[in-house]
Amino acid sequence: MSLSHIDSSNKAAMVDVSGKAITERIATAEALVTVNDAVAAQFDGSDLVSKKGPVFQTAILAGVMGAKQTSNLIPLCHPLPLDKVGIDITFENNTAIIRCTAKTTGKTGVEMEALTGASIAALTLHDMCKALDPAIVISQVRLLEKTGGKSDYRA
């Protein structure tokens, strides 16, 4: 098995998906954002509230926007028509758990869109809370599952 984005000349290349079947493809990714007690104290039961506004709601919007821009950010990603991007954020023990699910019907998967959405949401949360905690930790950005295409995956 070889890397998918390296051609026979050992050069970076976009994968040719022209021969692939069109199927429904879904991927879910996760990112964890750990904050200090000062930030956690801003949690009102459904969102973190900062001087910049509702943190989770802003992070959700940013994550959706990020997922939609994945092919502009990652050079060899195919531009995809996304049928849906959903982001859910829960907060437990000073950690925001961000989950992004992306869905398309096409010839290539949406793993990178889900990972980008979760990452951009995490970065937005960091940006909105950094005044209270400059040491925020973003960790464990990972693919949880993908379905559709040649093979499925579950972490």
TrEMBL record:
Q: Name one GO molecular function term.
A: cyclic pyranopterin monophosphate synthase activity
Q: What does this protein do?
A: Catalyzes the conversion of (8S)-3',8-cyclo-7,8-dihydroguanosine 5'-triphosphate to cyclic pyranopterin monophosphate (cPMP).
Looking at the record's lineage, which domain of life comes first? Bacteria
Q: Its pathway?
A: Cofactor biosynthesis; molybdopterin biosynthesis
Arranged from A to Z, the UniProt key words for this protein are: Lyase, Molybdenum cofactor biosynthesis
Organism listed in the record? Haloferula chungangensis
Q: Which InterPro entries match?
A: MoaC, MoaC_bact/euk, MoaC_sf, MoCo_biosynth_MoaA/MoaC, Mopterin_CF_biosynth-C_dom
Statement: the UniProt record of this protein carries the keyword Iron-sulfur: no
EC number per UniProt: 4.6.1.17
User: Which reaction(s) are listed as its catalytic activity?
Assistant: (8S)-3',8-cyclo-7,8-dihydroguanosine 5'-triphosphate = cyclic pyranopterin phosphate + diphosphate
Domain Molybdopterin cofactor biosynthesis C (MoaC), residue spans: 14-149
Name of protein: cyclic pyranopterin monophosphate synthase
* Pfam families hit by this protein: MoaC
Q: Which Gene3D superfamilies match?
A: Molybdopterin cofactor biosynthesis C (MoaC) domain
Signal sequence extent: none
For this protein, the record's NCBIfam families field holds: moaC, PRK09364.1
